[in-house]
Every structure is written in structure tokens, then in C-alpha cells.
Amino acid sequence: MHQPKSILAALLALAGLSGLTARTAEAAQAPRQVNIKIVNGQPAAPAPDTSALMEKARQDSLALLAKARQDSLAMAEKARQDSLSLADTRRQLDSERSKRSEMENQLLTTGLLVLDAVYFETGRTEISIKSKPYLNMLAKMLTKYPKLQIEVDGHTDNVGSDAYNLNLSDGRSKAVMTYLISQAPELNGRLTAKGFGESSPKADNRTAEGRTLNRRTELRVLNKEALDEYNRVSGTGTAPVNGSHAAGSAE
Predict the structure, then answer these.
(1) Could you read off the pLDDT of 95-145 as tens digits, one per residue?
(2) Distance between CA atoms of 77 and 83, rounded to whole angstroms?
């Protein structure tokens, strides 16, 4: 009596397995469903390859760093060159300012400036070429004081006749005046020239050293009252308006 039930159970199990197999086969043969995102009526682009994007970003970053480093080095070199150029310019200006200040102080406080770097050939009125840088600086300095009326005075030693020395000193003083005006045309009308010959020695003509000192060219301020105004501005103190002048005995 129990056998028929076992056969029935086996038949039912076999029927269930056959149905499962059929469903599995149908699922395998069914087409796969693909989800495609639609954007604005068009299929969206597939997701980009993130590894490629990361590599490109890395390369771009390295390129930017290399350019920044190159730019930094170029800027540093330019700054170094600018610094060296500025330092050199400052040295030149300091040197010029030191010389100019010494001349200015002498002229503004005494009304007289001996041009100790002006040279001529013996018996000639042409200015030596080595004197011209000094005169260039002097011309520039004089333009700073437009109210000053200045006389260029020429002096000689006692070698030669009085007439010869007077003519020589006059020619030399006019040569200096002409050169100063050529370098600074605004000095025209403010400078005059006068030769004193051997009449106003500063030292003993009986010695070689004395004769060297007596052969000189000087600048003399004619309107010494103007010195007070420039001294107040420059802070050099009150100028001695009655300051000594080596050529005074010729006046």
C-alpha cells in the first residue's frame, strides 16, 4: 500500500524539475536588458575612462610646475641683474655726488672755486681732453643755481711778458666759459670771462711749486648776495659774502 505513494512523489518531483529546466532555458535564450540613459532626447555618452583623466591631470600638473619653476628662475636672474645694475649706478652717483658736493660747498660758501682739474698745454689756450669730464660735471652743477652770475677768471705765472700773460689768461678763461656753455646752453648770459695775467699770484713765483699754483682758472660769483639764499636752501650755512678772492687785487 505504501509503494504507490512513493511512485507518485517521484513523478511529481520529476515534473517540477522539468519545469525548472524549461524556465532556465527560456531565461538563457531571452535577450539581455541594457539600461541606456537618455539626456535631452539623445543617448548619453559613455562614462569616461577615469584612469586616463587622472594621467592627463598628472601630466598637466607636472607641466605647470616645470613652467612655474622656469619662470621663477628667470625672475630671480632678472632681479639679480637689476640689483647689480642698481648697485653700480648708486656707486657712480655716490662718487659723482661726493665730488659735486665738494665743489658746491666751496662755491656756495666762499663764492670762489679753483678749477684744479682744468689743464692746458704750455703757452696754449686749448683745453686738455682730460679736463673735459670735470668740466662736464661742473656745467651740470652750475645749472642748479640759475641766480648766480659767475665770472671765469684766468691767471698765469710770471714767465713771459705782462702782455703775453694777460692775453694767454684771457684766452684760457674764454675757452673754459665757451666749453661750459656748450655743455649747458642755459648758462649763456650767466657766465663772463676775464684774464688777469700774472697780476694776482697766490704763491711765490720764485719757486716751481709757486708758479704751478699761480697758473690757474677760477670761478668767481659776482652777485654774492644770491649765495645767502642758496645756502639757506642747501643747509650749508651762511656764506661769507665778503669772502677772499685771490684775484681781488686786480679789481
Answers:
(1) 655 655 788 999 999 999 999 999 998 899 999 999 999 999 999 999 999
(2) 10
Helix then strand then coil, in percent of the chain rounded to 5, is 60, 10, 30
Distance CA 247, CA 157 (A): 13
Residue 118: exposed, middle, or buried by beta-carbon count in 10 A (0-12, 13-18, 19+)?
buried
Q: Which candidate, 191, 149, 199, places its Cα nearest to that of 174?
A: 191
Per the CATH hierarchy, to which homologous superfamily does domain 103-241 belong?
A: OmpA-like domain (3.30.1330.60)
Q: 210: buried, middle or exposed (CB in 10 Å: 19+, 13-18, 0-12)?
A: middle
pLDDT score of 20 more than 60: no
Mean pLDDT over all residues of the chain? 81
Q: Where are the domains of the chain?
A: 103-241
